[in-house]
UniProtKB/TrEMBL annotation:
Protein name, as recorded: Major facilitator superfamily (MFS) profile domain-containing protein
Organism per entry: Ancylostoma ceylanicum
Region: Disordered, residue numbers: 265-287
Localization annotation: Membrane
Chief localization: membrane
Length: 287
């Protein structure tokens, strides 16, 4: 069994832990904000009154502000560092570039553990842990380096690369199968097009650019959602979700319009990129 196949394991584990991360951290933030604003809201038993605290408009607004700051820290730092990690993946080592974001993840989780142990600490420490993760590339670097690693096997056909990408996308969605079982298809197709039309020695940078765009989109989404939600909470709390559904239409129409052109490029791509090894591919092949 090729050692590259083991990349599915850490990616799957990261996806599963990531799906558990958000509800747990949100609960912690709500409780910390509740404790911080107890004199203002009149809610003093924040542990047993979580449901009451989560319905309080003042607590919701402040908690959303903290999550917004954390998202800005993660995405901004991740966008700045992912490109550099992509270059390391192409020029130095695929494996070394994969380790960098996981080191940052361990440090960020250590920060969260300290925040949970010292529960009375300010909730504004949470963005700090996200900033640490972002400085090591964040989730964007995990995704981009994993795809660069799995598609850099020399001599593999475009069909096999597409299968590898599909398996890796499946590993990413393993933690949220009931909710996103069909959501991975567009990402799988787009990354397959990239792997078939980009030379092997440039795939790390190409996937890094995609991850940066993904991070930028998440940053804009966080700004829109966390600014719109507090404003609309008094008359239409679900406005952000309605807007999110409406914004799916433009990219869907663009993909449908350019479908034939994309399929033509994919079918006519040659295998020169797969046969020409980059220095990083040579280092991985000897593993």
């Amino acid at each position: 069994m090729d050692i590259r196949n083991y990349v599915y394991i850490p990616v799957c584990l990261y996806s599963m832990t990531g799906s558990m991360f958000l509800p747990v951290v949100q609960s912690m933030i709500y409780q910390k904000v509740c404790m911080l604003l107890s004199n203002e809201t009149g809610i003093y038993d924040c542990v047993n009154a979580v449901s009451e605290a989560s319905k309080n408009q003042r607590i919701q607004t402040e908690a959303n502000r903290i999550v917004l700051i954390a998202s800005i820290c993660l995405c901004t730092a991740g966008i700045l560092t992912s490109r550099l990690i992509g270059r390391i993946s192409d020029k130095k080592s695929r494996k070394m570039s994969m380790l960098i974001p996981f080191i940052g993840l361990l440090l960020a989780d250590g920060s969260l553990l300290l925040q949970a142990m010292f529960f009375e600490s300010t909730p504004y420490f949470f963005p700090l842990s996200e900033l640490i993760f972002g400085c090591f590339g964040g989730y964007m670097a995990i995704i981009s380096t994993s795809f660069a690693y799995i598609t850099s096997i020399p001599g593999v056909t475009s069909k096999e690369r597409s299968k590898s990408i599909a398996r890796l996308e499946g590993a990413l969605g393993a933690g949220v199968i009931p909710f996103e079982m069909f959501a991975r298809f567009p990402a799988t197709g787009l990354r397959s097009l990239i792997s078939n039309n980009v030379p092997a020695e440039e795939r790390g940078s190409a996937f890094a650019v995609v991850a940066i765009l993904e991070g930028g989109c998440k940053l804009v989404a966080a700004l829109v959602f966390h600014l719109l939600f507090p404003w609309s909470i008094s008359f239409m709390p679900q406005l952000s979700f309605v807007l999110m559904a409406a914004l799916i239409a433009p990219p869907t129409l663009l993909l449908w319009y350019y479908q034939e052109e994309l399929e033509h490029k994919d079918g006519s791509s040659n295998e020169e990129g797969a046969l020409n090894n980059s220095p990083a591919d040579d280092e991985n092949t000897t593993a």
